[in-house]
Structure formats: C-alpha cells, structure tokens
Amino acid sequence: MAKEENLLLVILAIILGILVLLFPLFGVFTASILAGLSILFLGINTKLYTLGKQ
User: Rounded to 10 degrees, what is the CA torsion of 37, 31, 28, 25?
Assistant: First the structure.
C-alpha cells in the first residue's frame, strides 16, 4: 500500500512539474504573439499615415 501511495505522489509531482514548466512557455508564446501583432499594427498605421500625407 505504501508503494502505491508513493507512486501516486511521484506521478502527481511529475505532472505538476511539467505544468510549472509549460506555463512560462505559454506566457512567452503569448507575449511574442502580442509583440508581433503590435509591430505589424505599427507598420500598417505608419504606411497608411504616410499615404495620407502625400
């Protein structure tokens, strides 16, 4: 019985460790998407602004 409880704790620890490692990666992924979209938005606005000035 003790071995089964230890195995369960080991499996839970591995799953929680993987989740802790994955959430920062999701954060970096989301931040990179937002940064890319904001740069794209800036580029489009700059192009439209320069076309309107002519």
Answer: -90
